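Two proteins, back to back. First:
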Amino acid sequence: MLNASCATLAVLGVPFNNVTMDETVSLIEEQIREGGFHQVATANVDFLKNAMEDKGLRDILCSCDMVVPDGMPIVWMSRLLGMPLKERVSGIDLVERLADLSARRGYGIFFLGASEAHSQRAAKVLKQRFPGIRIVGRYSPAPLPLDQMDHEEILQRIEEASPDILLVAFGNPKQERWLAMHRDRLKVPVCIGVGGTLDSLSGSIPRAPRWMQNFGLEWLHRTLQEPRRLAARYLADALCLLRHLPGYLAATAVQPKKAANHSIVVQQVGNTKLISMIGDLTGAALDEFNSCSGDACREGMNIVLDMSKTAYVSPESLGSLIHLESRMRRRREQLWLTGLPSHLGRILRTGQLHNYFMTTTMVSDALYRTAKAEQRLLANFTPPWGSLREEAGYVDVRMELLQDVCRRIIAVEETEESTLVPAAFASAGR
């Protein structure tokens, strides 16, 4: 999986892949060769503002296979967090690089969105600059709300063209929602929301001079071009940052840092991996955690993370946790964070992630919930072998194992609440 192959940094709760433009293009080519469906977002400050206000959009961005920073303010914020992103990866520059890749490798590109005139002009410009580019289709549907669009017609056009790369120019958040809505229908390896990139390529919206781009002033150039449309948007973006960023930076900065020593203890409880993280979750500890959690995912297991003795969680660590949660959701498996210290709870709240993860104060509670979920799954499962009696025996053996291990965990917790769990387990096993 792509997310496991490159570092991510959580900036205000959104995981950005820490990649250069060259690395982005290489990873996209890997996705094309892999096939399936991969959603890529080129996110700027407006994305962050929308994600802070819209849980559904934040969940979509967290589930993307790759999110790249399309704006210098994102890079600047990562520097304030102490883990700088390598560089800005702008949408328009990425599209031009993909046009070059198409010309060299023969990958098919489909343009969806923008006006017909701008889409046609953008295609003409790219064909002139990159002879041999394969633009296998273009379609500019009427600019309607999502619930009024003719989705079947759009999907049919894309399926008939069979592109390798789909560029969706509906603007954020519409383009991200449209892609997430149809992720199970789209048979396109790489789908990217590109906003106004086709308009810019058509020449209708001139780009800022290179020196303004380098200094992160492209937003000013755009505002001077379209003051009525963009001034209010950029002001809202700035106010959102002023409201949320200081608290997020403070929550990250005040974490306790212990010695470099760390340990990660892994236990198997039925179909759940219990991972206890002790000390700072960064550097070598993060690599070890990614390795053992990846193994659990490949084995189809639930994961319970005991964070009661976790000290420091870096933006990179939080990015890994976000991608782990997203990966397990797709597989319909459970990830629980337990025993969160107050400083980790503040990071989740200020990053608007407190409702993204499943959390509980006690390990035993999370194990009980994963066991109940496992029991429901097994109860609804009819194996292709043996009799119903054999199936029931399989369930009984699994539940006996879960009960035995969980009782031993509960015994050491010595809390009044934990004494309720064995009784609940006993009734669940009958």
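And the second protein:
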Amino acid sequence: MQEPSYMIAIPKDQSLIEDPKNFMGNLTSCEFIKINDMNMDETRGLVIDLTIGDNDYEVELNPTGVEIPDFVRPEHAFTDEEVRMLDEAQAGLAICFNYEGDSNQCFHDQLKIMDVLFPELLAVLDCPSEKLLSGKWVALAAKSSVLPAPRYLFTVQAISDGGDEVWLHTHGLKRCGLYELEILNSNKEFFNDHYKMIEAFALRMLENDEPIEPGDAVFIGQAAGKQLTLTAVDWKEALDHYPDVTLGTEEDRDDGVHSEDTCVLMIYKNERAEEQKIYTPVDDFNQFLGQNPMFYFSTEETKRMSALARERLPYMLKAFGNKENTVIAKIGLTIDKEHWSNPDKPEKEHIWFEIKDIKNDSVVGELTQEPYYVSGMKQGDTGTYLFSDITDWLIFTKENRVSPDDAYLLA
């Protein structure tokens, strides 16, 4: 099932690819990368055994030609000059190795290797997820103490034949030793919600210590008071439930890419169905999706997002100095004790405030929404909160909407 993670680093200075001496010195002199062994293999290229932190990797490096396929999605914004340089780029360096253990950490380490090799990266072509990453983003992410968002490990593609039917499927999960995911018989009205279902299920697969096997029930959210419990079903078996689909059929899988290690997401309507392994198409849940569906993030992902927001707080503070920008921050407020799950463990509700002022290590914010579980507060109320209370932030400039993950736009 597992495939190697094959990425192509595209440096701004194309001449660097011509001679390994131009970039290998950066790797061998790096303080946090230990080179254990290095040899040239006739078929694999330069093979390097190296260690980053507690992780050992066998990395293959190969100069390669660069051609960005039409199906590759730019994950980040590129300037007009960067687009021109990409159009003219002809050479890159392929960096390839197998992920073992924590896939998020392996992905982060792969970014670190590319950033060390080429301090001036133009872009990275992440072949497993079919994404084009900004070199500026890679540099910022590689130097961060916080792991990149796990959604970077995969892409959800939407395929349409021009009609209403949409076939959703992932790319990139196989490098993590997981099966790919699909939703059949989606449509233009609901495919965004179906996209979120796939993403939520994929994130759970990546976070779980134990594998999520086909048939296992995974609770990912709710809508209209109805629980949304998904399971994965081998695509050949799932097709029996979709006799009328025209996309994602056996004929669409001749290339082999979507014919092995791929499962269709389906739902368990209730506990009885879950117990008896009776699953039905996801579109049976469509009737509830128009009623404010909620998809859950894990505690681990919430902590990761909060850590990144705090690490990159200087970008927010600097942006606030430009009065043409609007800055909002999500603040964690302690909810009323009657709503605590554990009477001895305070819980928080995370609410958006518009930043009005900054004082020392605090922000003055105006509440932009009504809290659900904090009595005595209403929209428009103003308060002072410590930087440590901030769990997320957004900057609205004339040109962009910038989140902590997008801070490369302000670099």
